[in-house]
Write a structure and sequence with these properties.
163 residues, elongated
């Protein structure tokens, strides 16, 4: 398992280094995922731009990215894979400090490595992020509460849809 995770991490790093120079404004690289889905491996490149991604955008970016992946030497992919270029959707991941800064005043979901106030998953409005601490306003039953979360205990963060 550890070797597989290391391999996935190194594949994502190699892919990131190969394609970042080709992702030009107005496009923004949001995330790269590499995973096995049933019998196939899928390399998912999540891209966004102001106003959202169109089918034409994904087609253009696929045509740009595919040859760059073919030129990575030695070939880092252990098996054939499917390249999927798509929008991150409404619940986009927030993987960097910069993405969290852009998400201030938005409703987010945060999963933690260790519980804070007996919670490991919190959804609320991100009201502040200073690079080290997230501040969220959330509802606990019927009461509005505020929680501060050290960035170092954040396992995952993403935009969330408030229901």
């Amino acid at each position: 398992m550890c070797k597989e995770v290391t391999t996935i991490t190194s594949i994502i790093e190699l892919v990131t280094n190969a394609i970042v120079p080709a992702i030009k404004d107005p496009f923004e690289l949001i995330d790269i995922e590499y995973e096995k889905m049933r019998t196939d491996y899928v390399l998912r490149v999540l891209i966004d731009k102001p106003g959202g991604i169109t089918v034409e955008d994904t087609s253009l970016l696929s045509e740009t990215i595919s040859p760059l992946l073919d030129n990575i030497k030695p070939d880092p992919f252990p098996e054939q894979y499917i390249l999927e270029v798509s929008s991150p959707g409404l619940e986009r991941p927030l993987k960097t400090k910069e993405s969290l800064l852009k998400a201030i005043n938005q409703y987010i979901n945060v999963s933690l490595y260790q519980a804070i106030d007996k919670m490991k998953v919190i959804e609320g409005v991100l009201t502040d992020f200073d690079g080290e601490t997230l501040t969220l306003n959330y509802i606990d039953k019927t009461r509005k509460k505020t929680i501060t979360i050290p960035y170092k205990v954040v396992a995952k963060a993403r935009l969330a849809v408030k229901l």
